[in-house]
Design a protein that fits this description.
It contains five helices and four strands. Strand 2 and strand 3 form a beta hairpin.
C-alpha cells in the first residue's frame, strides 16, 4: 500500500517487483483491496499554482447553533462552494475545519465575505494562510 500511495500509476509488473510477489498475486491482492474498499480510488496530484489557485488557507468555523439542522445547512453550503476543497467536522473550540483554495487573497476575501459571511449559522471564522508546505502527502 505504501508503494501505491507513493505512485498510484505504477504498473502491476513494477509493483510486483517492488513488493516481492508474482504479478498475478499482486494483481489479485490489488483487486481484493479495491473490492473491500481499502483502496477507494486513484487521484492525480494537481499543481494548484499552475491551475491558478495559488492561495491556500485553512479556515476554522464556529457555528452559532449546535443543532443537526445548522450543521446540515452549513455542510450543504460548503459542498456547493467550489473554493472549499475539504470540509471536516471536528471536535474542539470550533465545529469545522476547511481547506480553501482560491486564485489570490482578493478572491479569498470574496469567498470569506460573500459565502461564509452570508451564512446565518456561522458565528466565528478564523483564517490560517498557508505560506509554504514543506510536507504534503495528500493525493
Amino acid at each position: 500500500m505504501r508503494e501505491l500511495a507513493r505512485d498510484g500509476r505504477v504498473s502491476n509488473l513494477v509493483l510486483a517487483e517492488r513488493v516481492g510477489l508474482s504479478p498475478s498475486a499482486t494483481s489479485r491482492r490489488l483487486g481484493e483491496l479495491e473490492q473491500s474498499g481499502v483502496i477507494r480510488g486513484y487521484r492525480a496530484m494537481l499543481d494548484r499554482e499552475t491551475l491558478g489557485y495559488g492561495f491556500l488557507a485553512y479556515v476554522t468555523v464556529g457555528l452559532n447553533q449546535h443543532t443537526k439542522a445548522a450543521q446540515a445547512a452549513f455542510e450543504v453550503a460548503m459542498a456547493q462552494a467550489p473554493q472549499v476543497r475539504e470540509c471536516h467536522n471536528v471536535t474542539g473550540v470550533f465545529e469545522y475545519l476547511l481547506r480553501v483554495e482560491t486564485r489570490d487573497l482578493a478572491a479569498y476575501k470574496v469567498f470569506h465575505t460573500d459565502v461564509l459571511g452570508t451564512l446565518p449559522q456561522v458565528n466565528s471564522i478564523t483564517s490560517y494562510i498557508v505560506m509554504g508546505s514543506p510536507k504534503d502527502e495528500r493525493a
